[in-house]
Each structure stands twice: as structure tokens, then as C-alpha cells.
Amino acid sequence: MRASQNEPVGDGPAPHGAPSQSEPSHGVDPRLICIATAALHRAQQRGYAPGYERQDWLKAKAEFEMQQRPY
User: How many helices (H) and strands (E) does the chain have?
Assistant: First the structure.
């Protein structure tokens, strides 16, 4: 039986836009996405005033790490 031209065959590449099973989505560590999102929320809360980006990141990272600790 022959597969149609639109269907992947065997272990070929994943369809365009679909993540492959051997690598994480977009190649970005999910922990970094969580930290970046939390840092963005901090920046929003302070009205995006410049000069606090590092502080936002470090606080977001510390909060994330505290949430990941086993009790």
C-alpha cells in the first residue's frame, strides 16, 4: 500500500511547524520561559521603568527556584 504524498513516511522529518520528537519545542528550556514570563509581569507592574531588568530577572528566577523546591 502506498502512502499519499502529503503523509510523512517512516522516520522522515516532522511536518512543517510541528516539533520533532527528538528535540524540545523551539529549543528553549521551559524553565527560562517561566522565568522570562514572570520577569515580564514584574516589568509590567512597575510600568516598564528602565534600569530594573536585571532585578526583575533575578527576582523572578529566585521565585521560580523556590517553587521548584521539594517540601
Answer: 2, 0
